[in-house]
Design goal:
Radius of gyration: 23 Å
Largest sheet: 5 strands, mixed
Helix content: 25-40%
Strand content: 15-25%
Distance between the termini: 16 Å
Number of domains: 3
CATH superfamily of the largest domain: ATPase, nucleotide binding domain
Strand order of the largest sheet: 6-5-4-7-11
CATH architecture of the largest domain: 2-Layer Sandwich
Number of strands: 16
Number of helices: 13
């Protein structure tokens, strides 16, 4: 849940919003902290902290949580503070080959309700927008919460995205081109929406609450039916000049008997993806990737991963070999971008033999003079949780939060806007 304040505050009201977001984030990440502790950690004055805490309590976003134990230290016991779970809510949505789901999250990031979404055709963007919007509204209606405190929606999708406009520029495996996904759902739900590439959303979530906490230069490989990636430098996502960074599936690795979706036989997709494993095991009849069959590929891969085959079996050996190829290729990637950590995420990270292959290649990495290899990490944050964190990051723990609306009548003027 890394926030980048891209625009410097230009007026006092902007600065107050930034300071409030800073305090909220500190309480979120370090619950049961005191006012004095917040002043030390944020660098804000005691007077400013007192004012901000009073505003946040009045808005119902934080609450006092008893007194701290002095542990032998003199002076008054400090009052602890924590996020009020019902202070605000967000919706997370995932649209990918492995299914589509929406979930309602509390202000603390706990999933309160989840629903799977069934699209009649994964290639029909209009159907996706209609079903997602109706599912979101149904979740809000079904759960006994103050609907006026649903602050925003975040969508993590397997696609190339212009996050600023919520537009899916291209989703090759979904068959979408230039879809105003964010605007379409915002118009139907009257709730602001942010849209993010699924690998980017998971990358930020892993750094905030997952396996990559403490790292800011992170390369995340999302290994699923196909291969995708996300890279963050100093905590900021690197999206590329055309918003299409992360296409590691089309890296040239070596000849294969398989044909990638792009028509090449040498792509990384043909060696280390879930589709390639299924094809080599003849669990699918497609040695040439067909986007129209991605749902059947995903179902077959889910079955294989659930079996969790071990080495010494054809399935386990195929997964190990693919994982080993992943590890060797990531070593080359690491030489280029020099991250602190490489995170393995996606469905393939749930297969023991695949992870073993990755780690085997990593342990046998050649020693290059003056080069410090990054840490290899297996991701922990599911896509739907990452979408929830993205929504919290964008609409609650953010300078965009309309605190005055929450204080005055519990209804924010946020609605109807795009991030």
């Amino acid at each position: 849940m890394v926030i980048n304040f891209l625009n410097r505050p230009s007026v006092p009201s902007d600065l107050r919003r930034v300071h409030r977001a800073l305090v909220l984030r500190h309480i979120f990440f370090a619950p049961r902290g005191s006012r004095a502790q917040l002043a030390r950690e944020t660098g804000l004055s005691g007077m400013a902290i007192t004012r901000i805490i009073r505003e946040l309590i009045d808005a119902g976003l934080i609450e006092e949580a008893g007194k701290s134990n002095r542990k032998g230290n003199p002076g008054r016991r400090q009052t602890n503070l924590r996020i009020c779970p019902s202070g605000g809510f967000v919706i997370g949505v995932v649209i990918s080959a492995f299914g589509h789901e929406a979930a309602l999250f509390s202000a603390t990031g706990k999933a309160l309700a989840r629903r799977e979404m069934s699209f009649e055709s994964i290639q029909t963007a209009h159907e996706a927008i209609e079903v997602a919007s109706s599912t979101i509204l149904a979740i809000i209606q079904d759960v006994n919460i103050d609907a006026s405190r649903v602050l925003g929606i975040a969508i993590a999708i397997a696609a190339f995205v212009r996050t600023g406009t919520g537009t899916v520029t291209s989703a090759p495996y979904l068959g979408w081109q230039q879809v105003e996904l964010g605007r379409g759902i915002s118009d139907r739900t009257n709730i602001p929406v942010v849209v993010e590439n699924i690998a980017d959303a998971i990358n930020m979530a892993e750094q905030a609450k997952g396996a990559a906490v403490g790292f800011r230069d992170v390369f995340l490989a999302h290994q699923s039916v196909t291969c995708g990636a996300s890279y963050s430098h100093e905590g900021k996502l690197v999206r590329g000049a055309n918003f299409s960074a992360g296409q590691i599936g089309h890296l040239t690795v070596g000849e294969s008997s398989l044909v990638c979706s792009c028509g090449d036989t040498r792509c990384f997709n043909c060696h280390a993806s879930g589709w390639s494993v299924l094809a080599h095991l003849e669990r699918i009849d497609s040695r040439c990737f067909e986007a129209g069959k991605i749902k059947s590929y995903a179902m077959a891969l889910a079955r294989l991963v659930r079996e969790d085959p071990k080495r010494g079996t054809p399935e386990g050996d195929a997964l190990f070999h693919a994982g080993h190829q992943w590890g060797r290729t990531m070593q080359e990637v690491a030489l280029i971008v020099d991250p602190q950590a490489i995170v393995l995420a996606g469905k393939m990270s749930e297969a023991t033999a695949y992870v073993d292959g990755c780690e085997s290649a990593w342990q046998n990495a050649p020693d290059k003079h003056g080069y410090k290899p990054p840490k290899l990490i297996v991701g922990q944050v599911p896509a739907i949780q990452a979408a929830g964190y993205l929504a919290l990051d964008s609409f609650l723990y953010s300078p965009q939060l309309d605190l005055d609306g929450l204080i005055s009548d519990g209804t924010s003027t946020r609605r109807g806007g795009m991030r």
